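We include the entry.

. . .
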Amino acid sequence: MAIFPHEYREHSIFPRVTGPFKGPWEASFVIYRNGSNGSALLVCQGVLEGEYASIDAAYTAAHEEAMRQLRMMLEETHNQA
């Protein structure tokens, strides 16, 4: 499955889906901070518990969890400043 990043506040989110041809599917994600010179720094990665019956369900769950994690991290950073 092709993976295209989602951009959010200078970060790239890569939801991932793995599993056999007909499922069940597992979901995971990786978040990178985009550098000014084209570099990327790994910020967070995770694997969701459970299995999903469809690729779309796993992909959506991975994206939603990545966004939740990123927003939480950005809020913590903002509150510390």
